[in-house]
6-phosphogluconate dehydrogenase, decarboxylating (Microlunatus spumicola), 481 residues
Amino acid sequence: QQAEIGVTGLAVMGRNLARNFARHGHVVAIHNRTFAKTQALIDEAGSEGTFVASESLEDFVASLARPRKIIIMVKAGPGTDAVIDELVPLLEEGDIVVDAGNAHFPDTIRREQQLAEHGLHFVGSGVSGGEEGALNGPSIMPGGSRKSYESLGPLLEDISAKVDGTPCCTYIGPDGAGHFVKMVHNGIEYADMQLIAEAYDLIRRGTGKSPAEIADIFTEWNSGELESFLIEITAEVLRQVDAESGEALVDVILDQAEQKGTGRWTVQNALDLGVPITGIAEATFARALSGSVPQREAARDILPAGTVEWHVEDPDAFVEDVRRALYASKVVAYSQGFDQIAAASDEYGWDIDRGAMARIWRGGCIIRARFLNRITEAYERDEKLPLLIADDFFAGVITECLEAWRRVVAGAAQNGIPTPAFSSSLAYYDGVRADRLPAALIQGLRDLFGAHTYRRVDKDGTFHTEWGGDRSETAVGGGFK
Ligand code: NBP
């Protein structure tokens, strides 16, 4: 029997994706470099559907109906190139190769060009939702050619998560677009997690509540406008008790956050594009700070807090303030992430629909959240919306949260509690809404030391002051440098 789709790479993700296809009634060809994993899938889940197992890549390719659709789900990097190099000579024009691993989008652009030379479609696809999502419905972000989506799309939509009957999968855009939006998704995930961690820390240090008590607060928040997967699982982690010590698990976990690199890529790209994604950047740096062990040890006993004992007068009111600060900061982090998608879409010619992006992130993925509906609606109202937080709905949210947000950030600063994501989001908010920024002074300084010129508010053109001479101004014309 010819298979409709093939999966090569049967570690946790590939195995579960293959099972997901089979459970939806699709005949799935399966392959893994080490055959034992293929065998294990058949032994343990073979009864879930129709699998066509192959030991060799040649047999695997031969088992697929044309145009072949092959999903590569191996460790991102050289492994992906190794599989592609082995596959290409076995394929025929029009076949579709999907890389569903966490590739860096420049690699995807390179691979797409490489395969196009062989008449093959290469689809770099983001897949989010972890192991569980891969099995029960992930959020899927496929890039590549629109033509490939015609035959591949329905299969991917079928196995994706559904929200209100709508699949959490849509065509994203050419070449690297799919992996790019997955990268930004992960960047937003970093910001979301950092904000949640700051909220927890503030409540704990401000009110003395136990992790289990704070878990209850998160559970309550999860029934309101903050409802999301990450808020839900925060309650679960905070409630967990360590069997060995009897303490809250969160108190015995080493406080050094690790990362696999998608946050770093997001920030690096934002620097290239000149897009301020301060929430994601602070979240990435906060992980780096947590892992800066020698620096933390050098600082711990030497650097004073310079604060007095913190006393929160009204714990309930404080918890509500933190909730509002969290919501406002979260909206800013998403707004920044969507700005980055817009900038990249222009820069790389992807024509990405941001509203559709928010729609496919409502289910299946790690940042799935109730308020993503509101983002979709905002972009439906105005698909060219220049700033998400300037949309009426989100401006209203921030206005409602603003006083609380300022109280929380000020209180944290006064009491020596680090809230890099809360406070940088507020600084961004105040910066982006400002009538005038001190950037004018920076331009003046640049002109003095480097004759870099400046523009004026009252007339067109480019100007330079003769700082070393009579301090008169000359119009130097030309473009803005
Ligand atoms: P891993 O990232 O742990 O990769 C293991 C798989 O890669 C095995 O099937 C292994 O084959 C295969 N492989 C390697 Br390593 N080098 C190979 C090579 N040179 N040629 C052929 N196969 C090779 O698996 P995973 O955790 O299932 O993740 C798969 C992809 O999905 C990754 O790109 C990951 O970043 C991405 N992703 C993961 C998650 C998650 O929650 N884990 C979520 C979203 C995306 P072997 O069995 O023969 O060693």
Notes: The mean pLDDT is 96. The pocket of NBP is lined by residues 9-14, 32-34, 37, 73-76, 79, 82-83, 101-102, 127-128, 130-131 (CB under 6 Å). The radius of gyration is 26 Å.
